[in-house]
Amino acid sequence: MKVRNLLLSAGILLFSLVSCAHPAASGYADSRYFAMDTVVTLRLAKDGVPDDALKSAEAGFEKRLTELDTLYSVHNEESPLYHFNHSADPLENADGRLVDLLHTASAVSLWSGGAFDDTLGALSDLWNIPGGGPVPVKDQIREALGHTGQSCFTLTEDGAVRNDPDAMLDLGAIAKGAAAEELVGLLRDTGVPYGLVSVGGNIGCFGGEAREEPFKIGIRDPDDEAGVIGYLYLRDGFVSVSGDYERYFEEDGVRYHHILDGRTGYPADSGLRSVAVWSTDGAAADALSTAFFVLGCDRSAERCSDCPYTCGAVFILSNHHVRVTPELAGSFELTASGYTLDPCE
Ligand code: AMP
Ligand code: MG
Q1: Which contiguous run of DSSP H or E holds residue 237?
Q2: Residue-wise DSSP of 184-232
Q3: 35-76 pLDDT, tens per residue?
Q4: Calpha distance 218→138 (Å, rounded)
Q5: 242 within ligand 1 shell (Cβ under 6 A)
Q6: CA dihedral 72, 77, 80, 86 (to 10 degrees)
Q7: In this predicted structure, what is the pLDDT of residue 23?
Q8: Ligand 1, closest atom to CA 10?
Q9: Is residue 202 within 8 Å of 39, Cβ to Cβ?
Q10: Distance 10 CA to ligand 1 centre (A)
């Protein structure tokens, strides 16, 4: 069986939320969507799968994706989170998946000491990185930071209550991974033997145990949009990448990227260009990639083994060293020249 590559892509392409036909790699049916503010790709094994089963899997996938797009969005005016962020109303009777995600986000935030922080919506709104800035003045940053932190919200059994009227939730660092996990769960029951989903670079795979070879997942070179620095070989689970090249603007020759450090109020500067996290849990892979990007390589590698979620990481440092935690040491292959591979002790 030939192994196919799914290049981790976190490019921002403007497609509408419709599936568009793509020349499929042999043995696969590929489709592509725009949802959750990013590109979503689906790759399904089609050998031996009846055409109508494949079509029905793709239709079910698209329907669920549309639903998740609204459920987890903070930008869609129809979404429960948009309403919560822009009104004085509590979030009540929320969908159980959203409530669970808020609890997971809060737990990862506490575990990471706020490196991942879903309550920094006032700060990310101020920076407006996708809108191109500008760089806020220090007083604005100080003011916004005063409206972040877990104490700004109380989570309830069916939603959340805001304790600080100016605080806002931002699930941008966890929702795509959660969506990848739910979509993979859906696909497992469709009769398709194996496949891959990518929600803006948050990848989930299924059915790998039945394959002769593992899935081969390319990790993007931070300096080269079309290049990879190496590959992860995986049979199952989820991979999320956080990098300084994904969303950013430049002002006076300085790059301001989208991963914010809640201690300083500025884009994180921890010596990393990107970090890829594998986990058996999709939401955790996503949240941890953001947390690890903020914490930096050494502090993250120390924390990996005591993480409540099974996980491993590949760190790409600004000095062109690549470090891999023991959990992924046997699954990662460095292919790019100009990088040095070191294990994390
Ligand atoms: P990711 O690409 O998964 O690292 O997520 C980055 C997105 O999450 C940003 O575009 C912000 O919306 C939000 N965000 C930025 N910094 C943080 C942080 N430290 N913790 C949680 N969410 C963040
Ligand atoms: Mg993330």
Answers
A1: strand 237-243
A2: HHHHHTTT---EEEEETTEEEEE-GGGSSS-EEEEEEETTEEEEEEEEE
A3: 999 999 999 999 899 999 999 999 999 999 999 999 999 888
A4: 39
A5: yes
A6: 110
A7: 43
A8: 2
A9: no
A10: 13
Cα–ligand 1 centroid distance for 76 (angstroms): 18
Contacts of 58 (CB under 8 A, 6+ apart): 19, 29, 31, 42, 44
Q: How far apart are CA 140 and CA 146, in angstroms?
A: 10
For residue 292, the CA-to-ligand 2 centroid distance in Å is: 9
What number is the average pLDDT over the span 22-43? 85
This prediction has a pTM of 0.92
Answer whether 262 contacts ligand 1 (Cβ < 6 A): yes
Q: 343 pLDDT band (50/70/90 cuts)?
A: confident
pLDDT at 25 over 90: no
Ligand 1 touching residue 285 (CB < 6 A) = no
Hey, how many other C-beta atoms are within 10 angstroms of the C-beta on 233?
16
pLDDT in tens, 241-262: 999 988 889 999 999 999 999 9
Specify burial of residue 150 (Cβ count, 10 A radius: 0-12, 13-18, 19+): middle
In angstroms, the CA 98 to CA 155 distance is 11
Looking at residues 80-105, what average pLDDT do you find? 97
Reference 41, options 77, 6, 66; nearest CA is 6
Q: Which protein residue has the closest C-alpha to ligand 1 atom 22?
A: 173
Could you tell me if the CB of 277 is within 6 A of ligand 1?
no
